[in-house]
Sequence to fold (363 residues):
Amino acid sequence: MNVFDIKISEKACVLSVLAMVSIVLIHSTTVLTVAEPAFWNTFCQYLITRSFTYWSVPFFFCMSGYWFSKSAYVMNSGESIGSFWKKKTITLLIPFFLWCIIGCACVTPLVVANNFFTGRDLFLRTVFEGSFWAEGIVSLFGLKDICPIGNGPLWYVRSLILLFILAPLFKLVINGRFGWIILLILGLVETLIYPMDVPYINLPSSAIGWFSIGCVISCTGVERLPVAKSLLVLSGCGWVLVSIIKALKSSSVCILPDFVFQKLFQLLPYFGIVFIWGIYDCVYTRLKWLQRYSGMTFFIYVFHSISIAYFIAIVNFIFGKSDIVNFINSLSCGLFALIFSYGIGKLVKNKFPTIAKITFGGR
Fold:
């Protein structure tokens, strides 16, 4: 690695930790557990947990495409497609299957108990909900949009697996004469112009689009350029303004026509990523300490929803579901999930290194 690559790697590590915090906040939204939440509760939760954080998942897909373009396989540095897929089987496919089972096993007792006390069908939102065993398998591994409550975040891992299955196609395009232009068009179409999921295999348009954008960044080297102050201000203002508009829309306050809102909403990840990427260069000395946590992002990602599910259920059971309790619960459950997931991850890593090696995974 040269000096630029080392700096980019350090920057990506720090921003991946911030992105993971944002993802945990996304899943800590509790307003839907209240029958008729107050406007302030809905607006504040959606602003903090669903608007300002909207850059995080696209950022991870973008960085996955970026590092894929720099991999030994794509660069023709001695790695075959067989070796590449073998590595991804170890770091993604096996952990994905294991965490589907772990997440389901951990959360099913909570869901069944909740269904029992609320008078719902006992096995609602579990793999036992369907009347046919195949429906349970589809639910367990999230092959469609349905999955157990503890397995929700695993759609991202499944999407990466599907993208890496398409690795030979991406390599062919990247190494082509106009490869980066083709990928740029694909990325813009899937994220801005006409997003369209891949049918049958449930691959989201955002996954394809942002992965392609990451490949374009790697091919063109624009990540080495500093973000202009004018662009930094524009992206920051856009990030804040569109986040507020999105939170108002989620609170049933429509200030723009749906078409205009939809286009602005599609720009939100661009605003967030450009601003976060640019502002890092201004404050990096204060954030470098976050690098030490970058090795735990995969474990936190796959484990945090389990922590959040139990925390929310316990708090609701003890304190009820008033708006104040609900709002505090939203913020505190995210903090709890981060600390608890990190603590469990460190414990597993230190005490059971073999298990950690199999389950921690990575992109």
